[in-house]
Amino acid sequence: MPSLGAEFALALDGLSLLFGLIITGIGTLITIYAGYYFAPHEPTERGEAEGRFFLYLLLFMTAMLGTVLAADVITLFVFWEMTSITSFLLIAYKTSHAASREGAFKALFITGAGGIALLAGLLLASALSDSTDLSKIVHNGDALRASEWYHVMLLLIAFGAFTKSAQFPFHFWLPAAMSAPTPASAFLHSATMVKAGVYLLARLYPAFGSTATWFWMLSLIGMSTMLIGAVIGLRQTDLKALLAYSTISQLGALTMLTGQNTPIAFKALVIGILAHALYKGALFMIAGGVDHATGTRDLRQLGKLWRAMPLTFAVAAVAGLSMAGLPPLLGFLAKESLLTSLLEPTDATITQLVQPAASVLAGALMLTQAAIVSIDTFVTPPGAGFPACFNRPSTSKNHSQHKHHVHDLPLGMLLSPIILGALSLVITTLQPEVVATLLAQAASTTYGNKVKVSLELFHEINLPLVLSGVAIGVGAGLFAWRSQARAVLHHLMLSMDTLYNAILDALDVAAQRVTQLQNGRVRRYLFVMLVAMLVLVVAFGELPRLLSNHILTESLATALQGQITPTEVLRASAMTLAVAASLVSVIIRRDLLAILAFASSGLAVAVLIALEPSPDVALVQAIVDILSMVILVLALSRIPQHQRRQAEALNKHPSISNRYSALLAMGVSLVVFLLSWYALASRPRISVVTPFYERNAKPLTGSADIVGAIVVDFRGFDTLIEICVFGTAGVGVMTLLRLAMKKAEASRLTDSGESENNDLEERSRLTLSNKLSGIDGLRTSPFVRMVARAAMPLSLMLAFVQMVYGHDQPGDGFTAGVTVSLAVGLWYVVFGYERTKQQLAAFKPPLLIGIGVLIVLLSSTSPILFGQPFFSPYNFGEALHLPLPHGFDLTTSLLFELAICLVVLGSAIFILDTLGRPSHMEE
Amino acid sequence: MDILRAAAIAALFGIGVYQLLRRNVIRVVIGLNIISNAVNLFLLSTGAYDGVAEAYASAIGQRSDALPQALILTAIVISMGGFAFTLSMLYVISSRYRTADNDEVKGLTH
Prior knowledge:
By secondary structure, chain A is mostly helical.
């Protein structure tokens, strides 16, 4: 999009490479795993539904890769949002479960809000850097930090990152997202997507980082998230929920690290990202496998599975050790570097004490939870380690568990967790150079300077190692007394979920209050809208200034002094007629007479147009007005008599609401008066465009009629679309009415009572007299019939003349079409539906519209044959030297006029046909 | 005579709005068309020239402004299509809600 300066740009550097490898690597393993996960268990969802899962998963993988590879903030944002949406689809994958839908909505609600904030922040940053190029923004760090918008940008972007990475207080969507199928949870909600926020913070660190605000915000939020996630996780009974909370805790630690300003922090960050992706991915897959094998993920029911699932237990143990931060696994290294970096914080005040202490506590809790996952599930008997207040689920569920034949997982399903677990081990024991380089690269690009990463497990006995030992000891103790710890937590817990629900409830209540205003009466809505419009105009329209404007006073002066020409008198009387006739249409009680009054008002407007002088438009206005009247009368006849009587009775009693609407109408009228008076008085009296048309109409299009030339040639494309709209309206009327008729017929069959009697009466009356008479079964006089018969050929002739000579005198294809339609309408009124259908069988609307459109296409493309551009005027008669009479030009515009005529005729007959069809003929 | 035209346009518009707010749906349809007439009249009046002759190349004297005329020609045709559509909605209302009273048309029925 060059106009916006945004482009689809991708770039690969150390940080992107680390994330990219995690995404593709774990993505591949997850895909293999998911193939087994879905295979035998849910036979009903096989096939299409399963394909849906893989579609979403791969879409997500694309989006996530795009997010980390994007080199342009707009590209980044688009992919970022794509991950939110695919995450939504995956969480709501089991669409029939209410919990899935709620979880999905929650996730989308939170991350979507964050996404919008992020967009605003990124746009601000790119506006200040004059580029949407990510690298330019990153290099513009000094200017951004100095900008007065710095805190706004930082807050917006951090909000986006925190929501995505489930930081406190937005963390609660992540546990709810666990209703996604386990492969999705393992991939999106532990290994990749939730790290997008951390990625973004790390990516933008050079631009926004190393300020006090950055440090404190990220440290505090990260630390609280780390602690809260670790603490809440302990009381979870669902295996996946426990893992979700430990993920939150880990994400908090990563955020806290991003807030630091030291090379060691970035080393800890990249090792933490990798370690967590490896062990958490494995543990999630094992949780899915356990669920698969036993039919439950409830920790209170799981236990002693190691006999039945020895291999699964082995993998869980390795991954669990890494999660616990025990040597010799990558998790240990991660925790070690975390502690080291926290002991050398950017801001060496109390954080030097608080952050390591918090990390030790979180580490201890993490160890406890890792032990719960690997030991409680596989070694100890079910229900061990739970206090009494954790009610065990009812026995019926236990039964269903026992019915399940517990078996070890198929090797294919275990393959992916084995690989991930083995990697955690291999990286630290073999210490491959390539991994160290990869991590060092990632940390260096983030930090902006060289960061050394070694995968040595033991350096010496130092403070971090001691703290690690403390964490292990506390964790082991907590595990031993886990039952008591859970009981304490159970009574203490303040769930953010409650707050979220309270907010949503409040929103619901507010929405209900608002919707109570909407009582379904469209009239009232319109009233409110108009009042609002009036208020806005009066409040902000500066009407007093408008009134005192010299333009208006001058206009008034010229009006009073100016000579009154005969044309002006005629115009004034036409205007009076128009207004008076419309007033009559308000006052008069009978609807039919009101329609006639309204039609005469329209004719008065036509007279006014003719006095402009503008014969073409006046002609169109007149015949359109008459046609409107005819179809309005036809439509009136379609409304059952008792309804009509009812509606007419409404006109009799002026209600209070009528008085209000009269007042409102007067207000609107006054505003319109002022605005249009000002607009007319101040309009420029020299046109820029019209002289061009006047000069070129004859030479370019061969048409003396300038209005016609504009409509058919200069703005021909416009007119083409216009007749398409008209044709569509015709088709729309037909479909709407056919549908309504079917419904009406169906409801009439089931309906009983007075209305049916009324309808029956009407129907029998109609059937009896229809053969002989016109619309509504009324007899028509022979004289009127004669007129109607004569009108048809006359109208055809008139239409022909209007089309052929339209370019030199009033009239055009549209007028021609409406003229013929009027004659057809007259037939409907005079001869009734059936006879008109019989006698005018040749007028088939679809055929007419089809031929019309075909002619348009041919006439507009034919100039191409003669080397002229599409839709350009071309005179065939002249080019082919045809002996044509004077004034008759065979041009593309003539063909176009013919096409317009046919389309209009077709649509009008569509309308007349459906509105004129008597009700007893409905299918 | 701008003030006179503005007055006529405003009067037509006001009457149309009043009709639009009435309970009888037939009058609502009428009101809609009166409003479109008022708007067309306004557009026509915005022409730059006070013409004494029609906008033909062959005409002698000051021609009226062809541009707004061409525009309202299109507007009239489109409003005709819209009008027909409104009428069919009128019928749908009558057959579904069994009334021609605007206030009785509440909620959605199938």
